[in-house]
Design goal:
Elements (H helix, E strand, L loop, with lengths): L2 H38 L4 H29 L2 H18 L6 H33 L1 H30 L2 H7 L1 H17 L19 H16 L3 H11 L6 H27 L2 H10 L2 H7 L2 H27 L7 H27 L3 H13 L1 H10 L5
Length: about 400
């Protein structure tokens, strides 16, 4: 590897990260108020949680098909551009939603766009990560993601404080959506063939290794127990934990923690290894009792742990599996992985949404225990055969 190759890979990661910064600013800004917005449109807690879970499932289920299509056709950038366009434009369109079913369809559309582009972008980043370190590559990209996800809710909070209308807040996110698409255009023009960072070596893999499937199973446990922020925001609104303008700020705090920890967790993963992953999920699994039972101060602490867990999902899991799969099947592997995660997220969201109205203590217990159950599986995955 030459210095020029390393620099080119690093620049690509930064440029795609800037695109993702504006992307996260857009959809995470919108996501920070989806819960109370749906409630305003007449949705119940169960509807909010189920809609969020279904949207996430759609957003994850399509990733297997998207990743497979990209690997088979080689049309990485075309599919990526399509995904970003749908992903970005669905968010400001929520300003036009007059009922919760319409809002639900737009939320699903936003997740669909993200599903199309996510495994392909992860595959491209994994190629560049071969030159700069997988943990560093995913950590830096997710840090930029989380930076946008921090700013987005704050922008939304500012708009709400000034105008008090959710529709105006959603419409305001059109600016960042367009900036994302412009940044993506320049990234594609600068790096039309990112597969050159890690050329296909000709290695064939008819089956993924055991360690991959163990990581998938462990991640599914995390997804099952991980409460979607829409339900958390619904609770903050119903319990008056925060005012309407402070609910997105609490989400911004979580994303800010993610922005800081993603970068350092990625670097630590490259140096220490998979024990970083286990420790991160152990600590983050205790967010539920804090956000559902704590005062405003403890709820902020809980959201910080929630942000740590979200960052570990996006950074460490992808870094862990990227080295297990040959480059020609990596987008497919990311897609299958995310589809399984999304199915578990849907099952958990339905259960947790129904439990919210019936037994909050049981909801909290299932959330914590579901995530803790992943830890021994992660340990087995780290010890399993990891060659393809």
């Amino acid at each position: 590897m030459t210095k020029e190759q390393h620099s080119a890979a690093f620049r690509f990661i930064v440029m795609i990260g800037v695109s993702n910064l504006f992307a996260d600013l857009t959809y995470e800004g919108g996501r920070s108020i989806v819960g109370p917005f749906m409630a305003q449109l007449g949705a119940t807690a169960a509807i909010v949680s189920i809609v969020s879970g279904l949207a996430e499932f759609v957003g994850y289920a399509l990733r297997a098909a998207s990743g497979f299509a990209a690997d088979r056709t080689g049309r990485y950038w075309s599919l990526t551009a399509l995904g970003y366009t749908i992903n970005m434009l669905a968010v400001p369109a929520l300003s036009l939603a007059g009922s919760w079913p319409v809002a639900a369809c737009l939320i699903a559309a936003e997740r669909t766009g993200r599903a199309i582009r996510r495994p392909i972008v992860q595959g491209m980043i994994s190629r560049a990560g071969k030159l700069v370190g997988s943990g560093h590559a995913f950590g830096l990209n997710e840090a930029l993601d989380a930076a946008g996800a921090t700013v987005g809710p704050l922008v939304v909070a500012l708009i709400l404080a000034r105008h008090g209308k959710y529709g105006v807040a959603f419409a305001g996110l059109l600016v960042s959506a367009l900036l994302c698409l412009i940044a993506l255009f320049f990234t594609q023009r600068s790096y039309p063939n990112p597969e050159k960072f890690e050329p296909y070596s000709g290695v064939l893999a008819s089956n993924f290794p055991t360690s991959y499937w163990l990581y998938l199973a462990a991640a599914a446990m995390v997804g099952f127990g991980f409460v979607d922020f829409s339900l958390i925001a619904f609770h903050f609104h119903k319990a008056s934990t925060f005012s309407n303008s402070w609910i997105p700020i609490s989400y911004g705090i979580a994303m800010g923690i993610g922005a800081i920890t993603n970068f350092f967790l990625g670097r630590l993963y490259d140096q220490v290894g998979r024990s970083t992953l286990i420790a991160s999920f152990l600590v983050s699994s205790f967010f539920a009792p804090l956000v559902f039972y704590g005062s405003a101060v403890w709820a902020v602490v809980g959201m910080a742990l929630w942000g740590l867990g979200k960052g570990a999902q996006d950074t460490l899991l992808k870094a862990a599996i990227s080295g297990l799969i040959p480059v020609n099947r990596r987008s497919t592997a990311f897609g299958i992985f995310d589809t399984a995660f999304g199915a578990a997220w849907l099952a958990g969201s339905i259960m947790l949404g129904l439990l919210y109205e019936r037994s909050l203590p049981l909801l909290v217990a299932i959330s914590v225990l579901g995530q803790l159950a992943s830890l021994p599986i992660f340990f087995l995955a780290s010890r399993a055969k990891s060659v393809h």
